[in-house]
Amino acid sequence: MAITALRSETAIIQTPEQLVQARRMVLEWTTRLAFSAVERTKFVTAASELGRNALVHGKGGSMVITELQRNGMSGIQLVFEDQGPGIADIETAMTDGFSTAKSMGFGLGGARRLVNEFELSSIPGKGTKVSVIQWKRR
Amino acid sequence: MILETIPILKLGKLLLVTIQVDLHDELVLTLQDDLTNKLAVTRSRGVLIDISALEIVDSFIGRSLATIASIAKIMDATTVLVGMRPAVAITLVELGMSLKGIRTALNVDKGMKLLHDAMLEQEAWPSPR
Amino acid sequence: MALLTAAAGQSFDEELAGERWDDVRAGLVNLSKRRAVAGFSPSETATFIFSLKKPLFEALNRAYASDPARLSEEIWLASTVLDKLGLLTVDAFQQGREQLILRQQQELLDLSTPVIKLWDAIVAVPLIGTLDSERTQVVMESLLEAIVDNEATIAIIDITGVPTVDTLVAQHLLKTVAAARLMGAECIISGIRPQIAQTIVHLGVDLGEMITKSTLADALRIALAKCDLMVTKSDRRVASRD
User: Fold this and answer.
1) Count of CB atoms situated within 10 Å of the CB of C124
2) Using the beta-carbon criterion (under 8 Å), do A100 and B97 form an inter-chain contact?
3) Is A110–B96 a contact, with Cβ atoms under 8 angstroms apart?
4) Has residue B100 got a pLDDT over 70?
């Protein structure tokens, strides 16, 4: 099924304030496309986790947000990219095991459960790229 | 730079914290400082954190709330979190955050009742330190 | 009909893709829908379109009688166009059916998840039928919303009507309970049949601190107790004898 990309915008995430801005942007877009409250909350929270990762572990990065259309269904794609140290052991990073007390938590596993489509690629030493898509269901 | 602060109100023997803005690192630290100071000054035994205005609670905010509750506990105060939205609750569960150690209530009313009961209990049976 | 002759008169685009054909297509979709509602089968509607071939061929015959090569070419084009248009009505019929099924599915979903207020601060949701992922999400959300709306501190989830509980269903129940707890409400699961209890243990599902009761009545009793409520017999009958 063909996917068409409509509008697209890029946000730089180099400071905590910019992370808040990026999150607001995702909130605006999901609201504009009339996602349900739960879908919206899940997606924006996932964006917050991934954006934080890019900022804290990736030493700063960017987020590209794109509106998608597939078979009459609307969706939003977020691509987070950073040139940080990358993730050496992706398997471990994706498992939960980070309690509320610890500050080191990738939140990747959680983020994956919150979105419809999740793709991650990382090269240790080069950087990390995470792409997530949420389709509007009802 | 605009200095944001989160207001902490004294309600009888409780402190009420209403969070209505996006929490970021600096703000969280400021809140923790303010709360600790206020607890020391007022000797309150209960803290009510109202998050009914928060649409998004990610793992960072979740951890921050847990930290605040831990700090309050060390200062001999019980914390109750109120007003969590259903969408937020569902998301936190997916994230795997149980927020164990923080009591929760549906709204400020129920939260206050919970705190009063907890504080009465504490007075009758002070917890061993 | 008029639309068709108008568009046909303007161009013989085999692909039927041009803008001039948009009106024709829209008109046919409408026709298909009207006929479906009237009780015509899709092949009856398509046959109607195909029946336009006869008068069209006769007209072409009269126009190109002297040019056999051109005549057969035009007849071929006309035939192809009408075939495509006929099939279009069948497609439209199909799509109409699919939309109806989707609508009914949604209605079923909505109808099957009512949340009932049992008492001040106590709500209950009787689950009936198989729980799939989609349905469980809907139930979870309805329950949590109902907890907020009714300011409930206890929610009873009755699974008497759920035939089987597998790991997925158990996980969904656990998530619902966890979410309710985060909001400040407690959940009690009732309607646990012996087989289900065995399944849960065999699956190795850890219910944690979740309270489970075999009947809704038992669950209600516990719920009332937690709300510091008591049910007592009234003395009305004694008084009315006087």
Assistant:
1) 24
2) yes
3) yes
4) yes
